[in-house]
């Protein structure tokens, strides 16, 4: 029954992640459609029979190879999954992730060149195509790796190496997906300008990449007692880093640099920034800077003491 449950979990994970990958990339969706059989009345029973027979044979062979018969006196010290019970779903995910990265290698890492050489593809389409699906994949994979690390047996060297190999491979492949998402958003911002939301999204993706690096480091030694504290610490460091960066000022600087390079300026968005952006706006020509500064400073003198902050205070000074 436990092997049947493992097979059911494998199928469920395959459906969830397969659907996310298919929604993220049309080429992968076409490949999945070509590989999966079309089921009518006759083929349904045929493929069901094939699945049952070959599935049972595969499970039996895998059980024999990964968990040979043990002496009767052998007892289990802690409750863990059998090798096949955890290795089957993780191994299938590794194959699925590798297939997706292989199919989408050019769109994932092509960046600006891929956009320019692909007909009817814009930077917006490139960045948004599958971005959120890939983000969900990144988030969902973390608890799966954690569950494997918690429930996989580690009593023998083979068990430990198997966990390092499959868990590490899944973490590295997911890290490539994080890297792809960062490249997409970077290309999008270079083309359309920086916003607070885009900066926050990039920061979250970058933090997820750091988390996966920590997971890989913990998996190398199979010691993760320090990992939760490290994850929380990196999250706090990311928040402090964003505060030190001063997002509104940084966004204003990047948009002004884009204006100097292309002559394009999103005046309406800049007018919605806080007083933190005022020093950076000095780099704009007077005719462009004047309306933006006037809009930002319009309500500064009407705010009460409860909304006081240093940036607004400095902006009020003559």
Report on the structure:
The protein has 318 residues and is an all-alpha fold. The protein folds into two domains: 207 residues, no CATH class; 69 residues, no CATH class. 75% of the residues lie in helices and 0% in strands. It is built from 15 helices and no strands. Helix 8 runs antiparallel to helix 9 and helix 10 packs antiparallel against helix 11. The protein is elongated and about 75 Å long. It starts with a helix and ends with a helix. About 7% of the residues have low confidence.
- Secondary-structure element string: HHHHHHHHHHHHHHH
Question: What Rg do the Cα atoms give?
Answer: 26 Å
The amount of beta strand, in percent, is under 5%
Report, as a whole number of angstroms, the end-to-end distance: 77 Å
Mean pLDDT: 78
Helical content (DSSP H or I, runs of 4+): over 70%
Q: Which oligomerization state do the chains in this entry correspond to?
A: single chain
Number of helices: 15
Find the count of extended strands (DSSP E, 2+ residues).
0
Biggest pleated sheet: none
User: What is the number of independent domains?
Assistant: 2
Global shape: elongated
Q: Given the helix and strand composition, which structural class is it?
A: mainly alpha
The low-confidence runs, each spanning 5 or more residues with pLDDT under 50, are 39-47, 61-66, 72-77
